[in-house]
TrEMBL record:
UniProt entry tagged with the keyword Magnesium: no
Signal peptide range: none
Domain called Cytochrome c: residue spans: 237-377
Keywords: Heme, Iron, Metal-binding, Oxidoreductase, Peroxidase, Signal
Protein's organism: Flavobacterium chungnamense
Compartment(s) where it occurs, according to its Swiss-Prot or TrEMBL record: Cell envelope
GO molecular-function terms, A-Z: peroxidase activity
Keyword check for Metal-binding: yes
PANTHER family (alphabetical): BLL6722 PROTEIN, CYTOCHROME C PEROXIDASE-RELATED
Protein name: Cytochrome c peroxidase
Gene3D superfamilies for this protein: Cytochrome c-like domain
Amino acid sequence: MLKKITALLIISISFSCGNDKEEYVSIDTYPNAIAAFGNNINLSNLANYANQTIPSYITKSNVGANLITDKGATLGRVLFYDKKLSSNNTISCSSCHQQANAFSDVAVASQGVNGTTGRHSMRLVNNRFAVENKFFWDERAINLETQTTMPIKDHGEMGYSGANGDEAFSGLITKLSAIGYYKELFKFVYGTEEITENKMQLALAQFIKSIQSFDSKYDAGRALAANDGQPFTNFTAQENQGKNLFLTAPVFDATGNRTSGGLGCAGCHAAPEFDIDPNTRNNGIIGTISGIGIDITNTRAPSLRDLVKTDGTTNSPMMHTGVITTLQAAIGHYGTINLAAGNTNLDPRLRPNGFGQQLHLTAPEVNAIIAFLKTLSGTNVYVDSKWSNPFLN
């Protein structure tokens, strides 16, 4: 017999006088949730999503009006890992965004229900700590909430497109509405069993927004420094050199050759969040995974945090084509920017004085910037159970 757990909620009721009164309300038991998740989710003692510690030096946020709640993010976690959100019950959001790889995919193109993705799957870490609030490589989603259900509606990815023989998204709503644990969870979060796309979007976005990483060597050093420009006392000389190269703008001659200064990485990936400047344009990579045609609309990028695991291995291929697989190759790409025919969207910061930038990197500079980028990797994001698969099977 399944053990029944009764959760007690505190509901705050406001009166016209402005005083609040707390009333304890017993809500229904959740046998279907217990059967599906066991002890992985405890509805009477939810994981902390809403009040995680954020360093004082982190000031950027695109969280918007959909604030993270423990209940909403818990539902979002279930939706994120549930393969029932795909038309043939084989693909979930987590299939392409894996916790073991900082919520990215080791494959260049992720597997969907009807083929593979056209672009590499981005890491999801720290996506809310940014000025940029649009999503996908080409920023076609106006916010994270809109983004969350677009892969579900994609014919190739999760298959509820309403075209090419697919059911419409309404078919998914009908499917989920018949599942016991969703009846319980939607009532738990929203007060009613009714499932809507908007409710799904809110919950999924809250879970994704909760995925954060601030336990890196960089964070330990930054907490002891007044600003990023100071030498970090926990860094090696090489790591501090790499930090300076990252932060310092290069000086170019009339034909785009660096004559002094650093690499200027912070011009597009500003510390301490290391998110992407929303005004960034194409970075010089214009290929496609298929090898057919060019793609110059890629202007977004994930945070540079957790590019690699702490052992130095990459979490996934980099760039929208997955064409770059090492930090050395990534730095080398920016070291020599070619003005490719047809790329009318190249970021002006990469073509000083009208020429593709030539950084003329030395081996010690390359090694230093790699050493610094490795300091941006934490450990908790890979192992924290609140971001893990909640399903028993």
